[in-house]
Design goal:
CATH architecture: Sandwich
Largest sheet: 6 strands, antiparallel, barrel
Number of strands: 11
Radius of gyration: 28 Å
Distance between the termini: 96 Å
Number of domains: 1
Helix content: under 10%
Structural class: mainly beta
Shape: elongated
CATH topology: lipopolysaccharide transport protein A fold
Order of helices and strands: HEEEEEEEEEEE
CATH class: Mainly Beta
Length: 179
Amino acid sequence: MKNRALCLMLVVGSFLFSCRESVDPEALKVYDGPMNSATNIFLIHSDSAIVRSEISAARQLEFLNGDQEFPEGIDIKFYTKEGELETTMIADRGYFIKSENLYRGEGNVQIRNLIKDQSLKSEEIFWNQAKRKIYTDKFVTIQDKGTLLNGTGLESDDSFSDYQLKSPKGQTELPGEGI
């Protein structure tokens, strides 16, 4: 009888272990992709009921930590205290880093101050919304009226009306229009 009980326990035990499902380790990984997706977004930032900036994008992805990605590009418009459109900034891709309250544009980045007739091209730019500053450590090309400036690194107010090139590389007087 003792042998029979032992055999029965072995059979039942092997049956229980053989029926257990194997777990795929990939299925246990924590999801770190977007938690939310939106299309055709339009955000307005205002101060004292006056529009200060507008952000639009064809697609926005939002992550659990509050960061956002704009994989199809981002378009930001800056307005004067009087509400006049002053500066535009577009980029092929955009990112918002929530912990730093910082926007980053990359790809073909173009900034244009419509009032001062200035424009900038670079491959990456950062906008610190709280400090109202834009900056980059990348190569930039600036057209300031009839002058073309090249350099590496730039700091400016977010209207791109008061800028400083960190490492100027050259300056060319232009006979005609636009970059």
